[in-house]
Amino acid sequence: MSGNSAGTAQIEFHIVPMGQLPVGRACDLDEEDGRIVARIGLAHGTAELCEDLAYMHRVLMEQGRWEQTSPCSNPARLDQPSEGLGLAYVSWERVTGETLPKGTLAAPVERDGVLVWLLHEDHASEQLCAEISAYARRIAGDGLWRQHWPVA
């Protein structure tokens, strides 16, 4: 992958004005080889949440737990409907702040074939979580990004 010199794919999160997103949307994702960028509307997420998500995703990528398959042959693949393969399940779910460790806005819960992100409800809208979870059905469910769970 060409996303960075270490060969680890990068996942970025940015808060943007609502006018920079398609009408009625909470977020929009763009992908290239080695990189995916999530643009989140100001009305649906916070910069602090984006910082937590970026850090936690970086850890997962550096550990080699997820890898991107090359988008080169199909650059618009994220915008296509899920094929329903169900290879892995990833979702974003809102929880109360008391559910998360103190000072944390996002926490992953992961096992083989599953990754659920618990997000502080004051920092992520229901619409944002639903839209990202729909993207995840395509991305993880159809194997565009693959999980590498350690074998015991």
Q: What key attributes describe this structure?
A:
152 residues, alpha/beta, 3-stranded mixed sheet, 2 helices, 30% strand, disordered N terminus
Task: Give a structural overview.
- The protein has 152 residues and is an alpha/beta fold.
- It contains 2 helices and 8 strands, in the order E-E-E-H-E-E-E-E-H-E.
- A 3-stranded mixed beta sheet has the order 1-3-2, with helices on one face. A 3-stranded mixed beta sheet has the order 5-7-6. A two-stranded antiparallel sheet has the order 4-8.
- A hairpin with a 2-residue loop joins strand 2 and strand 3 (35-41).
- It is globular.
- The two termini are 28 Å apart.
Summarize the structure.
The chain contains 2 helices and 8 strands.
